[in-house]
Amino acid sequence: MRKSFRLVALLFVACLGASLNGFAQTPASCPPAAQSLTPQQTQAGLQSARDRGLLWRIRKDGHASYLYGTVHVATVDWVFPGPTLMRAVRASDVVAVELDLLDPDILRRLRAGMAPKADRALPPALAERLRAQLQAACLPDALTSAMSPEMLATTLVVMAARTDGLDPAYGIDLVIAGLAHGLHKPVASLETPERQLDVLQGRNREETQAIVEQALAELESGKARPMLVRLARLWADSRFAELERYAQWCDCLNSADERAMHRRLLDERNPALAAQIDALHASGKSVFAAVGSLHMIGHNGLPALLAQRGYQVERVEFKP
Question: What value does the mean pLDDT take over residues 45-57?
Fold first, then answer.
């Protein structure tokens, strides 16, 4: 079972980042750790913020909602919502994200679901390779007792992008959830932690080992980091046309197993996400739904699926 960890990592890094609080090390030789912003930095960032990402306005039954494509790793400069985005969030009655990581119950269930299982232990040689990558990433050995091997391997893929200033602590989904809570708006989770972890983790010892093998191959070959950086930067510049051609340049759909995983991660989840957004909108509320940008492309993307449900779907272009 060969998984493309450049895709897996980008889709699920939000929950992984939430599990790293308190673990990261910051020696001088390590990539820079995410920093908390001072009130002065926050005020300056908000004043100079510009719109980033991908936004759609969707209309049905006489009222409008919003669909926003996010990225789960970002730079500190990207965490400040631009004016168009702020207006859309303020105009909405409820904010929906894949998982509200500011909900203590969601976070508890994620951490419980990511705990290592005794029957999934890695062979010694593979465990040593994983530990070597953990040390190279300046992350402590304590993570091996807090996270399953496959979740730890996926975390390592994502953390490789820290040298480019990209960090899960700045993930836009978390920013949107924080903004909604700060505005005292209800926040809905479109999925459950169990559903997301079921997609990412192995179902037996053999699958767990295969997942870790593939993640380590991505790390050791150096392929993981450039793809994460490219996806993040095209999101920042709202380059939707390039994102729509993802299958042509991602180098992640070369085998039957990779294509099957792509369907499992995106196509098979999107109908349920669309149904949840539709249900919130149908209750009479204006919804701001923030979901990873790869869920927005193709005939099985959320804009297309919501159009099939009778919505008028209009892309909101950001001004330079």
Answer: 93
The region, left, alpha or beta by phi > 0 then psi within -120 to 50, assigned to residue 131 is alpha
**Whether residue 44 has pLDDT greater than 70:** yes
Cα→Cα distances 163→29, 31, 239, 259, Å:
11, 5, 23, 29
| C-alpha dist (Å) from residue 30 to 13, 20, 24, 25, 192 | 20, 16, 10, 8, 34
pLDDT higher at 140 or 67: 67
Contact 176, 290 (CB under 8 A): yes
Q: CB burial class (10 A; 0-12, 13-18, 19+) of residue 265?
A: buried
Give the separation between CA 28 and CA 112, rounded to whole angstroms. 32
pLDDT: is 257 or 110 the higher one?
110
Angle at 243 between CA 174 and CA 308, to 5 degrees: 85
pLDDT of residue 20: 52
For residue 27, pLDDT beyond 80: no
Phi, psi angles (nearest 5°) of residue 140: -80, 155
Q: What is the average pLDDT across 110-134?
A: 94
Q: What are 131's two structure tokens?
A: 């530990």
Here the tokens at position 286 are: 């204006």
pLDDT at 222 over 90: no
C-alpha R_g of the chain: 19
Tell me 62's DSSP state.
T
CA distance linking residue 183 with residue 177, whole number of Å: 10
Q: Whole-prediction pTM value? A: 0.89
CA distance 93 to 101: 19
In the chain, the percentage of residues whose pLDDT exceeds 90 is 62
> Residues of 81-105 as b/e, b for ≥16 C-beta within 10 angstroms?
bbeebbebbeebbbbbbbbbbebee
